[in-house]
Amino acid sequence: MSYTNGLDKPTDYFNTILWVGNGTAIGSGGKTVTGIGFQPDLVWGKARSGTDAVDNHQLINAVRGVTKSTRPNNSTTERTETEGLTSFTSDGFTLGSNGQLNRNGNNCVAWNWKCETGVSGTTTGSGSERSYSGRVNTTAGISIINYAGNSTSGHTIPHNLGATPKIIFLKNLGDTGDWIIHVGALNDPEKVLSLNLTDAGTNFNAGFNTTNPTSSVFTLGNSVAVNDDNQQYLAICFAEKKGYSKFGKYTGNGNADGSFIYCGFKPAWVMFKSSSFAGENWDIYDNKRESFNVMDTTLKADSNGAESSNSLFSVDFLSNGIKLRNGHTGTNQSGSTYIFMAFAENPFVTSTGIPTTAR
């Protein structure tokens, strides 16, 4: 019996790291962050507390290059940051003096993913072919794809995962516009959410052409948000991997003894969002900022605010999933639908048959 598809050590592919900024420029040594355990290809960083922690989220990837960053919490274009994240290392990364991730005295966090293989080629489907490049890790179910649009409905983009993605993050890099999130767990090819907004799930046929992704491509409509002619786009695609990642939906029960979400692993990171109604944030929890249950400290993907603690948002990370400990509208309103994405600290049972323990 296969428990993990060989992913006995999830921290080889995803890990969270904490550090304190020193405000030092690269020319004076900068800031070196180590302890990730691998060379990251996707870094999502945020100042979480400290002297001035109201800074934007930063998303940096190896496909676009270390000086290029996008901001998950807003709709701005890709930026060039010469004193931001300046290099990936075998165990982490280096930072310059840019305050977003290295303001002196700020406590910071980064969530890090590993991709292994470079890919490139041309897009398919309707309209003119366009070039794309990227990196993919089929073992861990993640690909980072940089493609050019062609303004034609039915334009198909190879994601190279060899499995159907359950979550796709998509951003127009050269124009102001919302992050478009396709959530396969909603089982509705028209419905999307916006990472930088608190809106509910909305129909957006011009985004994904009323077509669910396949094991080889995702299909675009003709919206400038996803497919403007010759515009550059970033797509981050996640396929579910047993014992390592879980992407799905659940229905809240409105009870202080809240819903249980089975993952098949002890979580390291989880993000929740209501898809039923507007006004609720994308709430992120991880096992490094809080190492014991009950957890109630969140960062919000759609906000530049510092981390905050609120007992109404309390959860437990268990050996095999997530237990909600409240009836709040943000994560557990009775009858409401929520989407979540989670990555593992340890599989519930490894390929050796040895179960993990709870916290």
Structural account:
With 359 residues, this protein is mostly beta strands. It folds into three domains: 104 residues, no CATH class; 122 residues; 103 residues, no CATH class. 3% of the residues lie in helices and 40% in strands. The protein is built from three helices and 29 strands. The strands form seven sheets. Strands 10-12-13-20-15-16-17-18 form an eight-stranded antiparallel sheet. β25 and β26 form a beta hairpin. The longest helix is centred in the first third of the chain and has 4 residues. It starts with 13 loop residues before the first strand and ends in a 12-residue tail after the last strand.
How would the blueprint of this fold be written?
Layout: E1 14-20, E2 31-34, E3 42-49, E4 58-61, E5 68-69, E6 79-80, E7 85-89, E8 92-95, H1 99-102, E9 107-113, E10 117-122, E11 124-125, E12 131-137, E13 142-148, E14 155-158, E15 167-172, E16 180-183, E17 191-193, E18 202-203, H2 205-208, E19 217-220, H3 224-227, E20 232-238, E21 245-251, E22 260-262, E23 265-274, E24 283-286, E25 297-300, E26 308-309, E27 315-317, E28 321-324, E29 337-347
Antiparallel strand pairs: 1-9, 2-8, 3-4, 3-9, 5-6, 7-8, 10-12, 11-14, 12-13, 13-20, 14-19, 15-16, 15-20, 16-17, 17-18, 21-29, 22-28, 23-24, 23-29, 24-25, 25-26, 27-28
Question: Summarize this, please?
Answer:
By secondary structure, this protein is mainly beta.
Essential attributes:
single chain; 359 residues; mainly beta; 3 domains; six-stranded antiparallel sheet; 3 helices; 29 strands; 3% helix; globular
